[in-house]
Amino acid sequence: MEPPVNIESLLNQNEKGDKEIEIIIFTKHLSSKHNFSMKTIETLFSIVLIVFLSTRLSGQNNQTNPKSASAIIENIILHTGAPKIPNTVDVIKEGNPSTNVTGIVTCMFATMDVMKQAIEKKCNLIIVHEPLFYNHLDETKDFQNDPVFLEKKKFIDDNHLIIWRFHDYIHSINPDGIETGMVEKLGWGKYAVKGSTEHFILPETTLNELLAYLKGIFGNNAFYVIGKPGMKLTSVALAVGAPGSMKHIRMLEDKNTDVLIAGESSQWETYEYMRDAVDQGRKKAVIFLGHIPSEEAGMNYCAVWLKGFIKDIPITFISGGPSFWSY
Prior knowledge:
By secondary structure, this protein is of the alpha/beta class.
């Protein structure tokens, strides 16, 4: 029989918390207390040691790589300051989350052209604001035999790209990140009502003059306009993207709103509401910029914002431009 174990002396040897010594203490203690044979102790020691080493190796493997796509995305969401959003669309749409990020591109859509430019810039994480595969949730079951989808998917896979959608969380930044970029592009910060990114009081102008100003900013875009060209105005509301016709209508109901600058809407909704309003003689107008021009500046702002806390990875904004041309 072995002499009793001096556990205190072993603990003194273990001031640095060596786990192997702790295992020896544990097994020696069992031996002295339960009078196990040496063979039993050796077997027990081997089992405990194997479990310990497996746990330690597993812990090492689970340590987050700070340059992995998943770690960078987690950091971005943290910096928005927003609470966790249930059922968010802000998930990785394609690519391996553990991939090391070599560069970041922000954009509205991951078009074929934008992805090619990203590869040229050696950027493999593409942060998009809108869907990758042609519907809000990026459901692909109906595209499994579609040649356009298959070629795009293959291109992403072949080039090891990671596509992450940044929609809900960037809109949850205070103030809204997309709207902030748009306000900067318009140059209307000084006209904002109490710091708002949706309501502005401009020096008196006309609808025609406002359109000329907007055309100077969005030269490649055609606008849809409902309202009288010579109408005088000062109060402008901004509704970027596609928030729904009821948001448009609520803004237009406000007696202080002269003009709504919107992204897009179904033509049987806000368009027809405004047509009736104008026919009734109401001093109101709507300018539809299109979805992309109403939000793309927000993804430019996103690139600048990311550079504030991501210092060791190149970050670039790429404009996709309009998705159609007008004849």
